[in-house]
Amino acid sequence: MSNTSIILRLRELSGAGMMDCKKALDEAGDNLEKAIDILRKKGTIKAAKKQSERQTKEGIVHSYVHSNNKIGVLLELLCETDFVARNEEFQNLAHDLAMQIAATNPLYVKPEDVPSEVVEKEKSIYLEELAGQEKPPAVVEKIIGGKLEKYFEDACFLKQPFIKDEDITIEELINQKIAKIGEKIEVGRFVRFAI
Fold first, then answer.
1. Three-class DSSP category at 128
2. What are the distances in angstroms from CA 59 to CA 142, 158, 164, 191?
3. Which listed CATH number (3.20.20.70, 1.20.1070.10, 3.40.50.2300, 1.10.8.10) goes with 3-53?
4. What's the rounded Cα separation, in Å, for the pair 157 and 190?
5. Single pTM value for the model
6. Which is deepest, 30, 75, 113, 116, by most CB within 10 Å?
7. What is the DSSP letter of 78?
8. How crowded is the C-beta side of 193, counted as CA atoms within 13 Å?
9. How many C-beta neighbours within 10 Å does residue 110 have?
10. Alpha helices, DSSP H only, in the chain?
11. Span 121-146, pLDDT tens digits
């Protein structure tokens, strides 16, 4: 592939601008996969900046009913403008997120949403599990931290691995879309019904 065709291919895959693609390819020595990783890292930084600076006042409520008609999800996905809310990519993201909720049944959107009494209860359970093992306090603390992270990965929507690509979390998926679309996107709330 010529240099121009590699840049165009990277732009097609990432949605990044031409200059960003060229810089990432230069940095990655024309390796397409490394360049994608570089753009993802930079996109995440841009996404994090967008997340902190902007407000989401628009969005959609997306509904998903599983094919067996026994599981349904209502998801509030927020963005900055009505224009983005009508965007096909944004709507597809809402659909993927609703399917994720139907499949994994998360309890909370993010770790900060988990009530402190639930976190304390989980910690006490882990402490009881480790009680007879006579490990140093620093090791016990590290083990409890790891178990809490695993709990958040199961219970918190943003920390879950994406069902269509287990190499990324829902949070990373949303950050990729923020970098591509150029607006802050966040999950407002959701509800899952099951029979």
1. helix
2. 40, 18, 23, 16
3. 1.10.8.10
4. 10
5. 0.67
6. 75
7. E
8. 11
9. 16
10. 3-14, 18-27, 32-53, 82-85, 88-104, 116-130, 137-155, 170-181
11. 888 888 787 777 777 777 778 888 88
